[in-house]
Write a structure and sequence with these properties.
The protein is α/β, with parallel strands linked by helices. The chain contains 17 helices and 9 strands.
Length: about 350
């Protein structure tokens, strides 16, 4: 299948708890214009009763960006969807896939697969409230409720409620006996189940999630479904996202990033702005740790950012100092390194321990 045939399809980075915050998304956006970015799951109670800027705020560069909501009360979800739409989110996604005990106790996440009618009520209420798309991210089953018939019923009743796009993690979830981490690896992947959903519901859109670690796999799946979602691999090796637009969609924009140093140079203005607003450097540099994954000096880069990024008064000089450890193909490119002064080893010790 040619690259052009994927033009109407979708590549996205999965919502990941404690990872895909707004600083992470601003960083990942530098690699790709096409990749769809998701917030980490935001619980409805946090939005309704908490700091809305903290839970709803995002940078304009992040588009297209999706907010993922966690909840099971149709009215609360509709209220939060309306607030998210007003903030400018491009899509509202309902989490019906998280298997953690804490989430289950709040009656949301994967346990909702056992209550398809309630999920449909939630979808219908949100659809009546907002104009942006309302989507559902789910598993292929939970515990012993893992038949294709049960999954088909879940899809059908929620499609009737107005959901036209489902993101399917191609594993079931064991709500008893497995941790969230184990639920990401132990239940077997069943891609054929997702392919079958697309064949049985051709009028709906399906994005496949689970076990996708490279763009070759993504291309294979895109030949059979409408979208592919990549999870932790996109965080552990973010540079691979720089090939998404060209490899999957045949788009080679003129100012696309040419090196990892180019990414650093583009992220620095964002970091400087956030520092001026009182954000701690570590909240941003933690997402940069894997930028030089597989490259010479990557371990020293990570160690320097991890040691000096959290220190009191840490600023962009920490990043500039860490650059001395890496040997990137674009290092001698004046356009890439402009504005990034070379640091001396001595300056790395100028920061005071908090």
């Amino acid at each position: 299948m040619s690259k052009q045939s994927f033009a109407g399809r979708e590549f996205s980075v999965a919502p990941m708890m404690d990872i895909t915050d707004r600083h992470c998304r601003a960083f990942l956006r530098l690699f790709s214009r096409r990749a769809r970015l998701y917030t980490q799951m935001v619980v409805t109670g946090s939005i309704i009763h908490g700091d809305r800027e903290r839970f709803l705020g995002f940078d304009g560069s992040e588009h297209p960006v999706v907010i993922q909501l966690g909840g099971s009360d149709p009215g609360e979800l509709a209220r939060c969807a309306r607030l998210a739409e007003a903030r400018g989110y491009d899509e509202v996604n309902l989490n019906v896939g998280c298997p953690s005990d804490r989430v289950r106790q709040g009656l949301f996440g994967a346990c909702l697969m056992a209550k398809p009618e309630l999920v449909a009520d939630c979808v219908a209420m949100m659809k009546r409230t907002v104009a942006v798309p309302v989507t559902v991210k789910t598993r292929i089953g939970i515990d012993d409720r893992d038949s294709y018939g049960a999954l088909s019923y879940f899809i059908r009743i929620n499609a009737e409620a107005g959901c036209e796009h489902f993101i399917i993690h191609a594993r079931k979830a064991w709500l008893k006996g497995l941790s969230p981490k184990e639920n990401r690896t132990i239940p077997p992947l069943k891609y054929d189940t997702v392919y079958r959903l697309k064949a049985d519901f051709p009028h709906l859109r399906f994005t496949l999630n689970g076990g996708v670690t490279d763009l070759g796999q993504a291309r294979e799946h895109l030949g059979k479904v409408d979208g592919v979602m990549m999870g932790r691999q996109a965080y552990l090796d973010p540079w691979l996202l720089s090939d998404v637009d060209g490899t999957l969609f045949g788009e080679h924009w003129p100012d696309r990033p040419t090196s990892r140093l180019d990414i650093v140079a583009r992220y620095l203005p964002y970091i400087e702005r956030e520092l001026s607003r009182g954000v701690y450097l570590r909240h941003m540099t933690r997402h940069m740790l894997q930028l030089f994954h597989g490259e010479p000096g990557a371990k020293s880069w990570r160690r320097h950012l991890s040691e000096y990024g959290p220190r009191r008064g840490a600023g962009i000089e920490v990043i500039e100092q860490a650059l001395r450890y890496v040997d990137d193909a674009g290092r001698d490119d004046a356009s890439t390194t402009a504005g990034m002064p070379r640091a001396t080893p001595e300056t790395a010790h100028s920061l005071q321990t908090a």
